[in-house]
Amino acid sequence: MPGPSLGRAAWDDVRVLLAVLRHGSFTAAARALATEQSTVSRRIAALEAALGVALFERGRRAPTPTEAARRLRPAAERVEAEVGQLIDAAADPRPDAVRGRVRVATTDELAAHVLVPQALPGLRAAHPELTVELITSYAAADLIGHQADVAVRFFPTTRGELVGRRIARLPTAILCARGKAAAWRRRPLTELDWIEVELAGLATPESAWLAAHVARPPSLVCTSYQVQLAAIRSGLGVGVGPRAYARFDRGLDVLDGADLPALDVYLVTRRAIRHQPRIAVVLDAVAAAIGALVA
Predict the structure, then answer these.
(1) Sequence-distant (≥ 6) Cβ neighbours of residue 2 within 8 angstroms
(2) Could you give the maximum distance between any two Cα atoms of the chain, in Å?
(3) Which of 54, 89, 124 is the last residue of a domain?
(4) What number of CA atoms fall less than 13 Å from residue 183's CA on the CB side?
(5) Nearest alpha carbon to residue 255 among 246, 263, 264
(6) Which of 100, 122, 189, 202 lies 20 to 30 A from 64 at CA?
(7) Tally of domains within the chain
């Protein structure tokens, strides 16, 4: 009796399977893969037909992985790693040259205030054949799936295919508008107008500190640190953020910095590409620019 056949589109189907398993739904997987939900559904159905097993139980809510899907995941991730290494090995016919594209995943704030003014000018001057692509989001980019080559993260990475190191521990402070520190200091913490950032599905050191030290609800909640900084700059309230921001943003001042959490910053890439010259120079430049925030 013939066994299952994956056919020519095997890798695309495996990639879609991993996206659904990681993101929890066809819709979220489609968003991560920059495709349509119907395409994801069609790919999963094709993979189920090729393998002769059901991979998800469909219902009104998110699809539930079957035992077969959970059993296939480790093998699928090994395939993903091998394909990634193949792509990386063929990425540049001149492996010793600092040229080509390097995709760096980071946040809007670090991109706008640190990497663009501090890291990119030197990289462009030293390596004119190098192109840096900044991918900004608060969600962790999938490096194994080649969404980016380098990622700046606020949490350690332990997967075997990825290597990372902490490049900075950024002190935080209570930030306020320039010229308003004296007025805000006359009020206790619990009576200040707090501007808080809430990120869906993400717990941050800042929100944990606020929950422990400030009883009143925030006066403004937003889903972007850029918006938070704009609100603080406008005098609408105070918020917790990296102390260094008050150095390069003339509209901000430090209200207080005692007993606030530090933000650990990690730089991550794929093990297979970390020594490629184009990757190495970008890693060094990003590490230097972010590390300078601690000085």
Answers:
(1) none
(2) 81
(3) 89
(4) 10
(5) 246
(6) 202
(7) 2
User: Are both 103 and 247 inside the same structural domain?
Assistant: yes
Choose among 158, 162, 110, 154: nearest CA to 136. Answer: 110
What is the pTM (predicted TM-score) of this model?
A: 0.71
* Domain co-membership, 122 together with 173: yes
Q: Are residues 80 and 108 in the same domain?
A: no
Rounded CA-CA distance 243/259 in Å is 13
Question: Domain holding 203: CATH number?
Answer: 3.40.190.290
How deeply is 171 buried, as exposed, middle or buried, from its count of CB atoms within 10 A (0-12, 13-18, 19+)? middle
Q: Pseudo-torsion of CA 40, 43, 44, 45, nearest 10°?
A: 120
pLDDT tens by residue, the chain, 295 residues: 455 555 544 777 888 888 888 888 888 888 777 788 888 888 888 888 888 889 888 877 778 889 888 888 888 877 777 776 676 666 555 556 788 899 999 999 999 999 999 999 999 999 999 999 999 998 888 888 888 999 999 988 866 788 999 999 999 999 999 999 988 888 888 889 999 999 877 788 888 898 888 878 899 999 999 999 999 999 999 999 999 999 888 999 999 877 898 999 999 999 888 888 999 999 999 999 999 998 6
